[in-house]
Amino acid sequence: MRSAGLNSGGMIGPVPFSRADAEALIAQGEFRRFLFAALDAAGLFAAEGPAQGATPRDLSFAEGRRSLGFALLQLAHGGQPLPIHAADPIGLTTLNAVIAEALRPHPQNAAQNKDITHEPGNDEPARYGDLGSE
What we know:
This protein is 51% helix and 0% strand. It is built from six helices and no strands. Helix 2 runs antiparallel to helix 3 and helix 2 packs across helix 5 (92-103).
């Protein structure tokens, strides 16, 4: 597979997606959260490691998804400043930014999460106590 790095015209990959496009996207928290979801759907964070499946077709499908995930990561990594991009060609800096953004609490989720309270001395959210015990 062809790398999605910068070409001589300052473009990333074979399509008209410029470094400026990547810079604008990677600067947005919404895009970094989207990219996390895409990388997760591609299986990059799966615990089972390389693609596993019952048939070769399953393996090919899973590896294709992972490959697309890595390509998306490289496209976004093209938006990092040139010194970072040069020092980190595989995109760990971008992956770190994507994961950090996904872990950050967001104001739009505050209303959803306000009913999850913690009881003193208990690490489990109080709402789970209502489920009863076995």
